Amino acid sequence: MKFALTWLLLATPFATALLWLLLRWGDRRRARWRSAFAGPGALTWAKPNHPVGAQRLDRALTLMAFAGLLLTLARPLWFDRDEQSELQGVPYLVALDSSRSMLTMDVKPSRWNVATNALDRFLANTKADRIGLLTFSQVAFLNAPLTFDTLALRTTVHYLDPEQFIDLTGSALGSALERAGRYYTSNQVPQRLLILISDGEDFSGAPVELARRLKRQLGLTVCTLGVGTSAGGTVPLHSYGGGTAKNTFGQQVISRLNESNLQRLAAASGGRYFRLGERGEGLEQLRQEVLRPMAEAAARSDLKNYRELYQVPLALAVGCLLAKVLLASERRTRPRKNEAMRNER
What we know:
alpha/beta, rod-shaped, 13 helices, 11 strands, six-stranded mixed beta sheet
């Protein structure tokens, strides 16, 4: 539940307390007038002889009715958890590592195939998110801007050619962060989330510091997904096989999943790290633990997903007023002591 006029909700207890003070001040003022009119010794017959319990109940009903009217004016709203609000979705960019190490076959058939297949299944089950696509190695490229058209995104992922996009020079995680930051800034997107799928190898030098700076300056949150194994494997020259990459010393290049790098990168930006898994389990876990809460928070910030609930405090206020009328404490009196003694005589 939330209130459309939060300030009025916060002012309700203070206003109710002020009304109580005003009523108390009125009681004391009337008492002074009676004392001035009848004299101090005649207060017994001049004071209204209403039952104390009825007066207190009448006062409580007055305060409750006043508070109920203020709560009604504050417009209480109840979140309507329906299909429309659940499917509001959030905007985010997906950055896919396209460096040579993604051809490593420590997961079958390769890291690249596992990542693209998992991303395809993820997009197929996405209903209302606005998603953009980046590929990066030493340089990041925007393959698709934010869009609701997940079918077009799946087609783009399907036609990503490893021989065309994969670079021999290694990956730079910072390039994906910088490109995402520029896109969000130029398009003035309020929610800024980057989902980065990579093996965690980085040759740019300082992606963690960059992620921390972009979080501070742009509000960019990065969630990372690691693909590969800690044991690693040799890096092929081509996606279809045909030799392995070698370093300047003629030794085969071994690529391993660098989870610590991805974990520190996510932590620096306030995000989460997940292991992708052979069937994209990490993406589904990310959807449940990150994207769904963000979508619900976005839906809860939109008043269109709420229904009015003013009837409850209004009914309380009207009920208190009716009870006050039925109680009629001003018409209730008790026998005075001197009258009771006269009757006994």
